[in-house]
Amino acid sequence: MMISSTTALIILLMSSVVIFAASVWRRFRLLRLGKRDNRCDRITERLRSLFLTVLGQRCVLKSLSPQDLSAISHCIMFWGFIVFVISYIILFGRALGIGLLSSLSKSTTFSVFSAFLDILGLLIIGAILWAAFRRYIIRPERLEPSLDAAVILIFIFVLMMTFYIQEGAQIAMTETGWRFSHPIGSAVGSLLIKINLKGDLLLKIATTFWWIHTLVIFGFLIYIPYSKHLHLIASPFNVFFKSLGPRGVLNSIDLESVDIEKGENFGVAHLSEFTWKQLLDLYACAECGRCRENCPATIAGKSLNPQELIKDLKVHLLKSGDDLLCKREGTNLNINSSLIENIVTEDEVWACTNCYSCQEQCPVDIEHVQKIVDLRRNLVLTEGRFPKEVRRTFKNLRTYGDPLGMGRALRSDWAQGLEVKELSEDSKVDILFWVGCSGAFSDMNRKTIVSLTKLFKKAGVNFGVLGKDEKCCGDPARRIGNEYLFQKLAQENIECMKRYGVKKIVTACPHGFNILKHEYPHFGGEFEVFHYTEYILDLIEESRLRITQSINERVTYHDPCYLGRCNGMYEPPRKIVNAIPGINLIEMNRSKEKSFCCGAGGGRFWMQEEMGKKGLNELRIEEAVKTKAEIVITSCPFCLTMLDDGIKLKELEESIKVLDLIELVEHAV
Amino acid sequence: MRIIVCIKEVTHVYAPVGIDRQTNLIDPEGVVHVINPYDECAVEEAIRLKESVGGENKITLVTICPPRAESILRDCLAMGADEAIRIWDDAFQDLDSWTTSFVLAKTIRGVDYDLILCGKQAIDTNAGQVGIYLAKLLNLPLVSAVIEVEHYFPQKKVVTVQKIIEKGNREVVECPLPALFTVEKGLDEPRYPTLPAFLKALKKEILELDANKLNIDPKKIQLNSLVRMIKLSPPKPKPTFTIDSSLPASERLKLLMSGGIAKKNSTKILEGKVRDVVTQAVQLLIRQLGKESKQHSF
Fold this sequence. Notes:
The structure holds two protein chains of two kinds.
Chain A: H1 6-31, H2 43-55, H3 58-61, H4 70-95, H5 99-104, H6 108-138, H7 147-173, H8 183-194, H9 199-223, H10 231-240, H11 276-284, H12 290-294, H13 296-299, H14 306-328, H15 339-342, H16 346-351, H17 357-361, H18 368-383, H19 388-400, E1 431-434, H20 437-441, H21 443-458, E2 463-464, H22 475-480, H23 483-499, E3 504-507, H24 510-519, E4 528-531, H25 532-541, E5 554-557, H26 571-579, E6 584-585, H27 616-626, E7 631-634, H28 637-649, E8 657-660, H29 661-668
Parallel strand pairs in A: 1-2, 1-3, 3-4, 5-6, 5-7, 7-8
Helix pairs in contact in A: 1-9, 2-10, 4-6, 6-7, 7-8, 7-9, 10-11, 11-14, 21-29, 25-26, 27-28
Chain B: E1 2-7, E2 9-10, E3 34-35, H1 37-52, E4 58-64, H2 70-79, E5 83-87, H3 97-108, E6 115-119, H4 130-138, E7 142-153, E8 158-164, E9 170-176, E10 179-183, H5 195-203, E11 206-209, H6 218-223, H7 249-257, H8 274-296
Parallel strand pairs in B: 1-4, 1-6, 4-5, 5-11, 6-10, 7-10
Antiparallel strand pairs in B: 2-3, 7-8, 8-9
C-alpha cells in the first residue's frame, strides 16, 4: 500500500534512528566521565533481578497499594510497549518488504497476536487516560503535572488513536468489513462506514493516519533521550548494574591511593568524580516522586528533595558534560564545575539522615545515599566545611574515642555492680557484647544495656564486654563524611577485637550492628555479628529465656532504619513483642519498609535542626499518637533518645512514652 | 608578616579525666593530651591574619613539651601554620611561668618575627603569665585578651586589634610591631584541618631544640623558678540546676531565651509567710514525687 512512499519511510526511519542513536551515544560517552566501578560480578543474580524487576515489573508492583494504583497502568503501558515494539518491527519489515518479517505477518499466529495487540491498545488508552486524569486532575503528592509527562501521554494517546483509525479505514475498504485479527479496528471500520465514508476518502484517511502514526513513533524515538523517558533505556541497565550487597553499606575510600599532590579530591566535588554507575543513576530517574514522597527530610520541609537532587545532577551532566569531556582530554581546564554551591546546596547535603527510604522506594534502584555521602566526604575531608557543631563531635571522637567526649575512663561505669566480664580480664567468652557509646554514656540508653546484661545473665550466656577498650564504632564519623576518622576508629576496634580472639558479637545499637557486620569486613574485621533482637529472639525460642509476665499495654513499634530497611529485620522485634502475653501491637501508618526515620541517622544526631523546621522526631511522635498506643517501642538507642525528645517537645509526657524493646522484655521475663 | 605562636599541651580538658576509683588518683589511662584551647585560638587568629594580609607570611609554632606533643604540633601545622619548633629537655619537667618564658625567649631570639601570639592562659594552671613575662623578656609591647587582629598597616608597621574588656565590650587598640598579644577565645571556633592538609603536615619536619642548643644550663633553670605548688585541693561538688540535658540544643536555647529553665514543668512562685511557703513547697514536692514514681512503673 505504501510502496510509493517506501523511500520516504526509509529516510525518515534512518534519520530518526540516527538522531536517537547520536543522543544515546552522547549520553553513553558522558557516562564514561565517571570513575571505574566493577559491576559485572554475579551475572546470574543480576540477570535474575533484571528479569523480575523490569520484565516482571516488580519495580512498580512493590509499591502497589490501594492508595497508589499507578503500578497497574505502568504495567499495562510497559508490557503494551514491549508488545507494540515487536509488532512495529514486523510491520515496518512488511512495509519495507523484508522477506522474513512480511511472511511472518501473514501467518495465523500473527493474526492472533494482532488481535491481542488490538485489545491491548484499548487497555493502553484506558491506562493513558487514567494516568492523565491522575496526574493532572487528582494530582497526588508525588507526581508533578509537568509538560514532559504531558508530551509523552499525548504521544502514546495519539499513537493509539491513529493506530485504530488507520486500521479501521483499511478494514472499511475491504468487502467484509470485519477481521478476526483486528476486533477493535473492525469496530472503528464499521463506524467509519456508518458515517458514510467511502473509497478514496477512506484510503486518504488510512494513509494520512498511518503517516501520523509513523511520524509520532519517530518523534517519540527522538524525544526519549531528552525527557524523563530516558528511563526506558537507562533503568534496565541501572537495575542490572545495581549494588548487590546489603543496603546500608558505604563504599570505602582508599586513603593511601589519593594523590593530594596532584590535587585529587576525597569524595565528590565534580561530576566526574562519581562512578559511571552513579551517573547512570541520573539517567534512570523516571521522576516518579516515590523518593520524595517518602523522604523524611522532604516531608519535614528540609532543603533536601532526593528527586530534585538527582534531576539537578542530571541536568548538570547533560548541560556541562561536553565541557567536562573536553576537560578530561585536557583542552579546557578552566571550568568551575564544583557541584556544591552551583548544583547542590550544603543544606541539602547535610539534611539527609541516611535512612535509605528513597532507595527502598525507588523503582529503578537509584542509589541516593552514597552520592550524598560522597558529597559530604568532599566537604569534610577536602574542604573542611561542615556544620559547626560537628567539629566538637569529630574532636571528641579523635581525642576520646566517643562522640560525646566522655572519655574511656567512664566507659565501663554502667557495669558497676553488675559483675560484667571484661575481655581484658578473661577473653574466653562466647559472645562479645558491643555496648556502644550511647549505651555506655547516656543515662537513658544505659537502662537498655543494663536490661540486656541482666537478660544475658538470666539466660546463662557466657558474654563479656570490651570495657574501656571499646571505642566508637565510627558510624557518626563515616556517615558525616569523615572517612579518615572512621577508618582509624574501625582499625583500632578491629585490632582490639582480634587481640582478644572475638568471634561472635551482639550489639545493642543497629548502627553498630550494621557497621560491624557489613563495613568492618572491608578492613579485615570478619566477625559474626548479631543485633540483640535476633539474639534475644533465639534465646526466647530456645526457651533459655521464659516470658512469664504479661503486660497489658497498647504499644506500637518504631523500626530503626539500620535494623529494618538496611538489614531487613522487621520480624524479629515484632516476634519478641508478640511473644509477650497481653500486649497489643498496633502498627503506625508508616512502618516496616516505609518506616519514618527518627531524625538521628546519617550523623544528624550530632547536628542542629535547620532553623525553624520541625524535627522528624516530632512528626514520628505525632504518628505514634494516632495509634493511641501508650508506649512506643524501638530497638535503637538513637531512635529512643530522638523519640523521647519528640515526646518532650510535644509535651506529651503524660500520654505516651518510649521504651527500648529490651526493657519490655526484662519486665516480662 | 612573620608570626610566632606559643602553644602548650595540657592534660586537662572539659571532659572528666579518668579517676581511678580505688586510689582516687587520676587514672593514667584516662588522661588525654590536647592543645590548650586558648592557644588553639591563637593559632587560628594567626592563620586568619596570614590569610588576610598579603605578601610573605610565615607562622612558626613554638612549644616546650616531650615528643608526644608532636601530634598537636602537626594538628596546628595542618590548620595552616608553616613550621614548628619543639623544645624539650629533661630539666624542663616542672617549669613555672617565669622559667617557661625564659626558655621561650631564648628560643624566639633566634627567630625573625613581627608578632608573637600566646593564649591568654593555659587551662591547666590558669596562671596566664607566660605571655606577659615573654613580652618583658623580649622588650615588646603587650596587648592582652585580644580576640581579633583587625588591620595591619605594613608601611607604618602598626596593627589595630580588638580586645575584650568587661561586660563583653570591646576595645580597639593600636599597637606598633613587633608586639606580643595574648589571645582570648573568639566567637569563631578554630578550624578543623582538612585531610590533605593533615596528611601534608604529617610529613613536615619539626625543629627540635634542647637546653644545650639553647645555651641554657639545665641545672640552673629549675633554681630560677619563682613560685612552686605546695598543695592541691579539689573543688567541693556543688549542685547546679541546669536545663534537662536530654533536650535538643535548639530547645534548650529556646527555653533559655523564654526566660526560665523551669518553664517546662510549669513554674510556680510561692508567696506569703515563710512558714506557709515551706508548707506549700513540701506539699508540692510530695505531689511531684508521687507523679514521678507513677511514671517509672508500668
